[in-house]
Amino acid sequence: MRPEGKNQLDSLYFDYPLFESPARRAAAGETEITSVAIVGAGPVGLMAALTLASFGIASVVFEKKNTFNDGSRAICLARQSYHLFEKVGALEPFLRKSLGWTMGRSYFRGKKILEFEMAHDRDQKFMPMYNLQQQYIEQFLWQAASKSALIDIRWLSEATSIDSDTDGVSIQVEDPSGVYQVRADWLLAADGARSSVRTIRGLKLKGENYEGRYVIADVKADLPVDPVHPTVRRALFDPICLPGKTVLIHRQPDTIWRIDYQIDDDVAVETATKEEIVRANVSSVLKEIGYLGKWELEWWSSYTANTLLLDDYRDERIFFIGDSAHIVPIFGVRGLNNGLIDAFNIGWKIAMVVSGAAGEGLLDSYTPERRGATLDVFENASKSARFMSPPTLGWRLMRDAALSLALDYDFAGEFANPRQMTPYHYGESPITVMNDAVEQQPAPGAVVPNVQLSNGRYFSDLLGRGFTGVVFLNADEIPVREMRRLLAGLDRHSRLLCFGDDCVGNDASGAESQRIAAAFSAEPGEFILVRPDMHIAARWRCPEPLEIRTTLANVLCR
Amino acid sequence: MALQFSELEHVYDKLAVTLDGIDDSERDLFLAKLVLALAYKAGSIEDVLESIEKCSRGINPAK
Fold first, then answer.
1. In degrees to the nearest 10, what's the CA dihedral of A383, A385, A387, A391?
2. Which of A379, A395, A426 is the last residue of a domain?
3. Nearest to A408 among B18, B19, B54 (CB)
4. What residues in A contact B54, CB-CB < 8 Å?
5. What count of CB pairs under 8 Å joins A to B?
6. Which of A363, A379, A395 is the last residue of a domain?
7. Residues with Cβ < 8 Å from A191, sequence gap 6 or more?
8. Which of A45, A200, A436, A541 could form a disulfide with A190 if both were Cys (CB 3.0 to 4.6 A apart)?
């Protein structure tokens, strides 16, 4: 919502482009053929299109709106999302515009009770978290997508009927010029929480609603900024301005500040989102943090904590990605970040199936991996939701006791840890290989550790677009050439990396190789297979190439 | 000796649910009983007195 007299796209800092309906598409009554169709050009749909394009696979994206989503919405991007932006060639504007941060400060009844710092060190290429308004996220992904000849984005184009059969999906698309048909091998539904694909397919999200409704409001103001930690997440528990409630404050680019505050259970959302009431509450929050200067109201919305998901993220040849598959509470910032991971996950898998490098069975791993990630989010999020908005007196007393104790006891501060997003572990995935090396850490299923190398490079920069074999050489003869041929034979995106002491063909110096080996707790002779999404698929101690070949065939369902 | 954080989380959850099952008029009595029982098992009188002192901080005094 925007202040009275302004239309929905009338922003203080962002110019929304108005896209036209597609100039080129099939004539009415004709059927267009495409490999992959994507419904929804939000961040998740565009991420899927960019992932496919990075593997050389074309897609057509249908979006019923004619511009980006209005308002800042999902503003926190986690480290893993930046790795994915980099992989699809969209990273640069994100780094330029967003605000990285590591620190959170919590206040209880007006007093600062603790600071938490998210894990970060020099071996990490990216910060643990970045703040950026969703319009920018969409704009930057759109800019990257519009440069690709493999991505055809069609605005003002709505999928009005969808039929899936054993060979493909038939989609009826309606735009201002009329109706036409599209036939795709696969359809990705990235059309958000109110997914029309989900409705057309007669599917329903299932789960629970939590206590605690919030208003989220953006204001433009010159709030003072901490010189050491310019971007800090502030959480105000039971503040003087809103007794018994919780307030979150985030700094965003363009001197925009996000203020999320909990509303009374007995107040209707329609009342709580009235402009004069939002203004009064924002004003009292700003006063509590010591700001009495000028501010302008930019945009606001409301939010309820839900944990809802589909039973299966796949419906025949349709895959649900992002909010169309799952709705999660905002605490811990897992909504958009997990949606981006969904998009990359199904993107590389479909790309390998379409290119012939993998069998269709590979796609069966999408639901267990990504639905598993959602259930993991629910477990953390329900704890966070109970802490942020205690549902009963008992939970409130315990929450307040922990906060009050945190002033004098470090252990109690841990209860206020927001359990920020970390990548899900695919240990139980059907394509994670659990052999005799599973005791090794990081175990198969985990995301690879990163290591800073010389010249500003990182270990993650060496990984191939496809699968990467990582071999730690020793004095014994390792059939490197055969391994290299094996990986190269998989597809043109896969490769082998060798690390060891001064060996010919090493991908890093001897000292760097040692640090990489230490990060993987790898012994000489060990072989680690890394997926395109940086998760470890398998690890072996001194494997035979035949063993690797057989495993790869199993992982890729060939 | 001290509990792991995961064990403390378990205590937190158990107490929240227990408190919700107690009549409003009995809640203070329950909490005082609990503290006394835990003090009996605590390592030393100094620890208990120090905890009473520390926990009084940030709590409004009687009017």
1. -110
2. A379
3. B54
4. 408-409
5. 43
6. A379
7. A39, A40, A42, A45, A197, A198, A324
8. A45
Range of the domain at A551: 459-555
Has residue A9 been placed in a domain?
A: no
CATH number at residue A54: 3.50.50.60
Q: What is the DSSP string of chain B?
A: -PPPHHHHHHHHHHHHHHHHTS-GGGHHHHHHHHHHHHHHHSS-HHHHHHHHHHHHTTSPPP-
- Residue in chain B nearest A403 by alpha carbon: B58
First to last CA, chain A: 51
Closest approach of A482 to chain B, Cα-based (Å): 47
Closest to B9 (Cα-Cα) out of A412, A400, A305: A412
Give the pTM: 0.94
- B40 reaches A (C-beta below 8 A): no
Q: Is A405 on the interface with B (CB under 8 A)?
A: yes
Query: B54 and A394: CB-CB below 8 Å?
Result: no
> Is residue A38, in this structure, part of any structural domain at all?
yes
Does residue A196 sit in the same domain as residue A87? yes
| ipTM, 2 dp | 0.96
User: Does B20 lie at the interface with A, CB-CB under 8 angstroms?
Assistant: yes
Residues A60 and A172 in one domain: yes
Q: B47: which chain A residues are within 8 Å (Cβ-Cβ)?
A: none
Give residue limits of the domains in chain B.
24-57
**Number of separate domains in chain A:** 2
Residue A366: inside a domain: yes
- pLDDT per residue, tens digit, chain A (558 aa), is 999 999 999 999 999 999 999 988 888 878 999 999 999 999 999 999 999 999 999 999 999 999 999 998 999 999 999 999 999 999 999 999 999 999 999 999 888 888 888 888 999 999 999 999 999 999 999 999 999 999 999 999 999 999 999 999 999 999 999 999 999 999 999 999 999 999 999 999 999 877 778 999 999 999 999 999 999 999 999 999 999 999 999 999 999 999 999 998 889 999 999 999 999 999 999 999 999 999 999 999 998 888 899 999 999 999 999 999 999 887 767 789 999 999 999 999 999 999 999 999 999 999 999 999 999 988 887 788 888 889 899 999 999 999 999 888 888 888 887 666 678 999 999 999 987 666 778 999 999 999 999 889 999 999 999 999 999 987 667 788 888 888 888 888 999 999 987 566 688 888 899 999 999 999 888 999 999 999 999 998 888 888 888 988 999 998
Q: Is residue A48 domain-resident?
A: yes
Mutate to test the interface with B, among A398, A403, A407, A415 (most CBs of B within 10 A): A398
Same domain, A189 and A334: yes
Asked if A357 and A469 sit in the same domain, the reply is: no
